[in-house]
Amino acid sequence: MAGVSEEVKEFMKSDTVKDFTKDIEQYHLGPLWEAIPEIMNHTPKPQAQAYLWSDELIKKKMGEAAQIFTPDRGGERRAIYFQNPGLTYRQPWGWASTTQTIYVAVQMLLPGEKAPSHRHSQSALRFISEGQGAYTIVQGERIFMEEGDFLITPKGLWHGHEHVGDEPMLWTDALDIPTLYGIGGTFFDPYEGGLQEPNIPDNFTEKRYRGGMVRPVGDDKYTVAPLANYKWDRTVEGIKGLMSFDPDPHHGFAVEYINPSTGKAANPTLGTRMQHLPAGMHTKALRHTHSTVYQVHRGEGYTVINGTRFDWKKGDYFVVPNWAWYEHYASKDSYLFSVNDIPIMDRFELEIEQAYESNNGHQEVTGEFKAAFR
Ligand code: GTQ
Ligand code: FE2
After folding, report:
1. Nearest ligand to the C-alpha of residue 71?
2. CA of 39 to the centre of ligand 2 (A)
3. Mutation probe of ligand 1 site: the residue of 77, 117, 125, 187 with most atoms within 8 A of C-beta
4. Measured between alpha carbons, how far is 114 from 76 in angstroms, rounded to an integer?
5. Tell me: the pLDDT tens digits for 135-167?
6. What is the CATH number of the domain that holds 179?
7. Global pTM?
């Protein structure tokens, strides 16, 4: 309450004001004078916290889930999602997402298993962590998935999964579930008859886009990305090209997955990147309005988030909340996959970024995060 006299401050704490504030509550009326500091903070004050889930924890709990149920006998998918401890039981809708706008899960499909087709208004994307031999079938196209591939499942399209290979498959799902829940935009339909049958050639869109930066004539008309699977070796080629030059001081060697028809994010509601940090690279600290969920695809290192050091290695997932200072250090050659909500921030014209100026761009480390099961 800048510019307000002591006398007025005292009055706002008086019984007269307190009693009135209490009185209006019973009529579902809210006192803005109480709410302003929380809801109109000077700079973003995310409820989501910085957090890390270890590979060991995820593997252990996935193994247990596999003993308990299969995706075709209940629950649609064997997916375990990351509940941000800052959001647990606090969001008005009673569940916790990973950041305020992003839902991230790990999904496991075992050889012989099927996950039935369905469609929904949420846009989904997947990043394949381990294995091969399963396909996702999106609107009749079977798309075979391998480690390192990035896939999109645009909103409204029928999709299901089946494993016809012989090793367990694990992948990351990221969806705009919290945003759509929050704005009241959720639609969901199950597919009659389980898993949809193929009706176009396998890997159709991937074949049509084998050229990379050349696209089939006529594809400028698409609004939904006409490419379903962004193969790992092509992503790595993009990164190798960047490595002929100096790395970006904040991001290392980083690329983003785009819709080849529009040049915008592959998924219209969530942005996605792959970044390579060679062993020894230490990026400079940055903060921005968007939040990010990282998956360590390969390597080992740490990220300092608002002064706390989060050690990571292959298979870990961690959250950098909105407006938090963060910098990465790689002790081994590392690849980080990440999901962000830049497209949402952009739509509100709120994508704002600041570089950490003091101490040559590096924060002071004041604490260490202890992950469960490590
Ligand atoms: O695989 O279709 O983690 O619909 C959440 C919702 C996965 C999926 C999730 C979904 C899916
Ligand atoms: Fe789905």
Report:
1. 1
2. 33
3. 77
4. 9
5. 999 999 999 999 999 999 999 999 999 999 999
6. 2.60.120.10
7. 0.96
